[in-house]
Amino acid sequence: MLLRHTPKEVSERHALTINPAKTCQPIGAMYAALGMHGCMPHSHGSQGCCAYHRSALTRHYKEPISAGTSSFTEGASVFGGQANLLQAIDNIFTVYEPEVVAVHTTCLSETIGDDLPQIIDKATKDGKIPKGKHVVYANTPSYVGSHVTGFSNMVKGMARVAESTGRKNGKVNIIPGWVEPADMEEIKRLAALIGVEIILFPDTSGILNGPLSGEYKMFPEGGVTIAQLRSAGDSIGTLALGEWCSADAARFLDTNNKVPCRVLDIPIGLKATDRFVDALRIIAGVSVPEEVTHERGQLVDMISDMHQYFFQKKVALAGDPDQVIAMVEFLVSIDMWPVHVVTGTPGKAFVARVKELTADLPFEVNVKADQQADMFLLHQWIKNEPVDLLMGNTYLKYISRDEDIPMVRWGFPILDRVGHQYFPTVGYKGALRLLEKTLSALLDRKDRDDPEQSFELVM
Amino acid sequence: MISAHDNKAPADPAVIKEQILGKYPPKVARKRAKQILINEALENETPEITANVRTIPGIITMRGCTYAGCKGVIMGPTRDIVNITHGPIGCGFYSWLTRRNQTDATAPDAENYMTYCFSTDMQDKDIIFGGEKKLEAAIQEAYDIFHPKGIAIFATCPVGLIGDDIHAVATKMRNKLGDCNVFAFSCEGYKGVSQSAGHHIANNQVFRHLVGLNDEVKPGEYKINLLGEYNIGGDGFEIDRILKKCGITNIATFSGNSNYDQFASAHTADLNAVMCHRSINYVADMLEVKYGIPWVKINFIGAEATAKSLRKVAKYFVDPVLTERVEAVVAEEMPAVAEVAKDVRPRTEGKTAMLFVGGSRAHHYQELFKELGMKTISAGYEFAHRDDYEGRHVLPGLKVDADSRNIEEIQVSADETRYNPRKSEADMEALQASGLDFKQYEGMIPDMENNTVVIDDLNQYEAEKMVELMKPDIFCAGIKEKFSIQKLGIPMKQLHSYDSGGPYAGFRGAVNFYNEIDRLVNSKVWGYLKAPWQENPELSATYVWE
Question: What was the ipTM of the complex prediction?
Answer without folding.
Answer: 0.98
